[in-house]
TrEMBL record:
Forms a complex with SecF. Part of the essential Sec protein translocation apparatus which comprises SecA, SecYEG and auxiliary proteins SecDF. Other proteins may also be involved. This is Protein translocase subunit SecD. The lineage of its organism: Bacteria, Bacillati, Actinomycetota, Actinomycetes, Kitasatosporales. HAMAP family: SecD_B (MF_01463_B). SUPFAM superfamilies: Multidrug efflux transporter AcrB transmembrane domain. Residues 369-546 form the Protein export membrane protein SecD/SecF C-terminal domain. Pfam families: Sec_GG (PF07549), SecD_1st (PF21760), SecD_SecF_C (PF02355), SecDF_P1_head (PF22599). One of its GO terms (molecular function) is protein-transporting ATPase activity. Belongs to the SecD/SecF family. SecD subfamily.
Length: 584
């Protein structure tokens, strides 16, 4: 019976070449992906590359006050709009009591970000009383249809879900054939009269009695709606300006390049009552991109009431307009009362359109309205000088680390420098890829985080090297010393890196702005340090321990037993048996 073997030899120890090949393949794949994506350099923050700075001034309206709480809420919502994970380095901060400054770095879609920030009015769900296409493109717009599009009224089986029924956006706004003149007045009366029939439509009879003559306010709104041309920017910018939530107003909306004008009733649901909205892709019913939204308890009741009323009307009065900043961003139709506090808007959405609508529903309900005061371009001259100074400081620090490694560890310094090089390549490639992926922007604090990571990475190598040298001092040869030193060094490295990563994670969560860039970079490089030590440094040391230069303990290898003060090898010898004298 064979005796059991002493100790264990893992596959990573017996096949270090395979481990090195895997990490080198990963580096090549990531580098290739970087070049294929076309983003070969990290995206720079506003302090390094410049960008756009937007100044917004808060305006007090009925029911809102300019105070610290409302301003902080607005900053938080704007920050979520333009900054996502918080690493794209878009800055949103207050200035004084009434202003908010938004800094958008170069390389970001500044136009889209500016549109999202500038769209700061309150969000409301208003019933549609009438609609009509305007401008030169109106002649080629879809012909009016009394029944709407094929997806305007979903079947009951398709509109039910576990959390409530779904409202489906019509695939094209259908212009009302009787949305002008007397019909608009009748729509206003139907909306204003509590006893009006729920099925009233904009096609009222022209021979209405004289007692139903429009009031002065209704006549003024009718004239405003008739004269509105939403294809002209000046007119649609002022559409609905100054309207209060309880007022009947007008608005504009665009679909497939055609502008439509809307006559909208009083707000039924406020955007503050939307708890959550997100864009989802429906793979089961092949409905494409959709927007799901969930209301709070108060909003759910209001939404059920208004959709129950709208479902009894004919088009376009069975639609509700989602109105943001006077513009109708969507006008879904309703076929039945939507209960349960959840709804779904479907239509011919692209992914970007669905995501933008979800963002507006989620973050559109600001406690204040804002006016864009100024938009300026920020240069990166100062940031560029600071970057050069930071890179110079990093280069000097790296040079001093290399000098120390060469002087103290000699041949082992080659392992440390190779590991630092691999860590640097991985850090650079991932920063370049994370720019377009999650909007990561490299700012000055992030550069500082990368420089600090040099010390963290070098510290891991030193821990392992010192464990190996301790084993050699105990009288062991290099190959067993490399394997015996690894478990103890591994525990120390993992604990040290865990503490650094925990500090970076806490810093990322509790801070905002540029400090998050420092924390993100520090956390990223800490994770990469573990990867490099486990999959590059350790296998490389296993291979070098089999080479004569290191295994023989050369004076220039940094592992000379004599220089380290090694003890002679401990050998077990059989103790001689005591001599027994024979008695004469």
């Amino acid at each position: 019976m064979a005796a059991p073997k002493r100790g264990r030899s893992s596959s990573a120890q017996s096949k270090p070449g395979r481990t090195l090949a895997l990490i080198l393949i990963a580096i090549v794949a990531l580098t290739g992906g970087m070049f294929l994506s076309g983003h070969t350099t990290p995206r720079l923050g506003i302090d390094l590359a410049g960008g756009t700075s937007i100044t917004l001034e808060a305006k007090a309206e009925q029911g809102s006050a300019i105070n610290k709480a409302n301003m902080n809420t607005a900053v938080d919502i704007m920050n979520r709009r333009v900054n996502g994970l918080g690493v794209s380095e878009a800055e949103v901060q207050t200035q004084g009591d009434r202003n908010i400054i938004v800094n958008i770095p170069k390389g970001t879609n500044s136009k889209e970000a500016r549109d999202q920030v500038g769209t700061t009015a309150k969000l409301y769900f208003r019933p549609v009383l009438a609609q009509d296409a305007t401008g030169p493109a109106a002649a080629t717009s879809p012909s009016p249809s009394a029944s709407g599009s094929s997806n305007a009224s979903p079947s009951p089986s398709a509109s039910k879900s576990g959390t409530g029924e779904k409202a489906t956006s019509s695939s094209s706004p259908s212009a009302s054939a009787t949305s002008q003149g007397r019909a608009v007045t009748d729509a206003l009366k139907a909306d204003a009269t509590p006893s009006a029939s729920a099925g009233a439509s904009s096609s009222a009879s022209p021979s209405a009695p004289a007692s139903t003559a429009p009031s002065a306010a209704q006549a003024k709104l009718q004239a405003q709606y008739t004269a509105l041309d939403c294809s002209k920017k000046a007119q649609r910018t002022k559409a609905g300006e100054g309207a209060k939530p309880g007022d009947t107003t007008v608005g504009c909306g665009e679909y497939s390049g055609v502008w439509y004008k809307y006559l909208l009733g009083p707000a039924a649901v406020a955007g503050t009552e939307v708890k959550k909205a997100q864009a989802v892709f429906d793979t089961q019913n092949a409905a494409g991109w959709q927007v799901t939204m969930t209301f709070n308890s108060k909003g759910a009741k209001k939404f059920a009431d208004i959709t129950g009323q709208l479902a009894k009307n004919t088009q376009p009065q069975n639609e509700f307009g989602i109105v943001l900043d006077g513009q109708v961003v969507s006008s879904p139709t309703v076929s039945s009362s939507i209960t349960g506090g959840s709804a779904q808007i479907s239509g011919s959405f692209t992914q970007d359109e669905a995501q933008n609508l979800a963002n507006m529903l989620s973050y559109g309900a600001l406690p204040l309205s804002f006016k864009e005061q100024s938009v300026t371009t920020v240069t990166a001259a100062l940031g560029g000088d600071q970057l050069h100074a930071g890179l110079l400081a990093g280069a000097i620090g790296l040079f001093l680390v290399v000098i120390y490694l060469v002087a103290y560890y000699r041949g082992l310094s080659l392992v440390a420098m190779a590991s630092l090089l691999v860590s640097g390549i991985l850090t650079y490639v991932l920063m370049a890829l994370l720019g377009p992926a999650i909007g990561f922007a490299l700012n000055l604090p992030a550069v500082c985080g990368a420089i600090v990571a040099i010390g963290i990475t070098a510290d891991s190598f030193i821990v392992y090297f010192e464990r190996i040298r301790d084993e050699i001092r105990e009288g062991r040869s290099l190959r067993p010393a490399v394997e015996r030193a690894w478990p103890r060094a591994r525990r120390t490295i993992l604990v040290s890196d865990f503490v650094s990563f925990l500090a970076a994670a806490v810093l990322f969560i509790v801070t905002v702005g540029k400090v998050q860039g420092f924390a993100f970079t520090l956390g990223l490089t800490t994770v990469l340090d573990v990867v490099v030590v486990f999959f590059f440094t350790k296998p490389l040391m296993t291979l070098l321990a089999r080479r004569k230069f290191f295994a023989s303990g050369s004076k220039w290898s940094g592992l000379d037993p004599k220089s380290l003060g090694a003890k002679p090898p401990l050998r077990r010898t059989r103790r001689p048996a005591p001599a027994h004298t024979k008695e004469a």
